[in-house]
Amino acid sequence: MQPGDLVVTVSPEEVHVGRVEGPAFYDDSAGLDKARRRPVRWATADRPLRRAELPQAVQAQLTRPPTVYDISSVAAELAERAGLEDVVDEPLLEADVTKPLELPPITEELAKQLLVPLAWLRETAQQLQEQRQLIFHGPPGTGKTYLARALAKHLAGPDRVELVQFHPSYTYEDFFEGFRPVKADNGAVAFEVLPGPLKLLAERARKDPANPHILIIDEINRANLAKVFGELYFLLEYREEPVTTQYSPLEPFYLPGNLFVIGTMNTADRSIALVDAAMRRRFAFRRLSPEKPPIDKLLDRWLRAHNLPDTPARLLDALNARLGDSDRAIGPSYLMKTSATRPEGLELIWRTQILPLLEDQLYGTGIDVEQEYGLPSLSDALHAGGATPIDLGRPSSEEP
To answer: What are phi and psi of 226, to 5 degrees?
Structure first.
């Protein structure tokens, strides 16, 4: 603490803001617990700020027990309300969490790179801006993870993006904080409370409030979400408000407003209807489906952009039309590769990736997947409908 610094003192009803005017001194006339002092000129001596009238983000920072602690993230707002805005320097303005953080605009170059409509991308970014949490959900092969990573990189930059993948054994301790084994100096194994990816990214975001930070959670619905998030559900909705956590009860934790979360969810793995209401209320959901924008005709656009024949797109459209189930539909990413435009490459992808996926999804239905959804059957159906015959080459009889 130095002369010229902004300081704040609070009571249950009032908040006073002032500037330090001189060095520390010692005066025990009011008792030893009040002996260490600083001369301060209080700008609010005659007109104190009312705590109840302050923004929620400011009130959340003033709830800790009486002690000295850093409130840089709300100092600019308090100084402005006290009439001291002229003395606020640039670092405090950059740290101010009471002003909304604007995500960078979505560009035409990004839309062209991703081959998706510009309006859809801008709407998605706007949803993320307002909700702070968003999930891409849809069947396999619709580019959910690819899109999440590309969007996060554009909005936050590659150095401010972290990715984790959930799985059935993933826990709160893995995600946020918990006891982890470490090697002690004597060679034995000890356990220490160590932070997980969410806490580490939150700490980085808190130190860099002028920029967005994004956590991507791949396959978010494969874990037990209620157990993984625990009391963090509250923080997703009430940013900047501290809560007591399980492993660090003496250090209240809060999620900074510049931390955003993008999840991906495979609907062939688990229906969105099975996600609990608390999760659905805190996230915006964007469906990626082969028969709807922005994914419909994506394979067509990719093939044209690379001057490749449209055979894979015609077959994929025929397959999904025959499946007639949006959650079982096959996404275009399986075929967004040059090998898929050659007969032998297309047959290999169909036989080793697409048909096994359908066999798993249709297990127990009595459907002969090879007969119903194999390349010869789809090609014959297209030809019967008047389409140009498709050269499928000579299928291989050997498994890779």
So the answer is: -60, -35
Q: Which two tokens stand for residue 192?
A: 């220490």
Q: Which residues pair with 36 in a beta bridge?
A: 26
> pTM for the full model?
0.81
Closest CA to 208 of 156, 147, 143: 156
| Residue 209 preceded by cis peptide, ω within 30 | no
- Residues 85 and 105: their CA atoms lie apart, in Å, by 29
Does residue 56 contact residue 241 with C-beta atoms inside 8 Å?
Answer: yes
Place of tokens 């396959």: 219
Take residue 38 and report the two structure tokens written for it: 């600083």
CB-based contacts of 339, cutoff 8 Å, min separation 6: 345, 346, 348, 349
Tokens 């959670």, located at residue: 217
The 10s digit of each residue's pLDDT in 226-241 is 899 988 999 999 888 8
Do β-strands 133-138 and 259-266 pair in parallel, antiparallel, or remain unpaired? parallel
Phi, psi at 106, each rounded to 5°: -80, 130
Residue stretches of the chain with pLDDT short of 70 = 269-274, 385-400
Q: How far apart are CA 125 and CA 301, in angstroms?
A: 22
Backbone angles phi, psi at 358, to 5 degrees: -70, -35
CA distances from 38 to 25, 42, 74, 79, 92 (A): 6, 12, 22, 19, 22
Distance from C-alpha of 68 to C-alpha of 206, rounded to nearest angstrom: 19
CA 39 to chain centre: 46
DSSP state of 100: P
CA 196, CA 198: separation in Å to the nearest integer?
Answer: 6
Contact 127, 283 (CB under 8 A): no
Distance CA 137, CA 267 (A): 6
pLDDT tens-digit series, residues 64-102: 777 788 888 889 999 999 999 888 888 888 778 787 788
103-112 contacts, C-beta under 8 A, 24 or more apart? 103/128, 103/129, 103/155, 103/212, 104/154, 104/155, 106/154, 107/154, 110/150, 110/151, 110/154
User: Given this model, what pLDDT does residue 396 score?
Assistant: 45
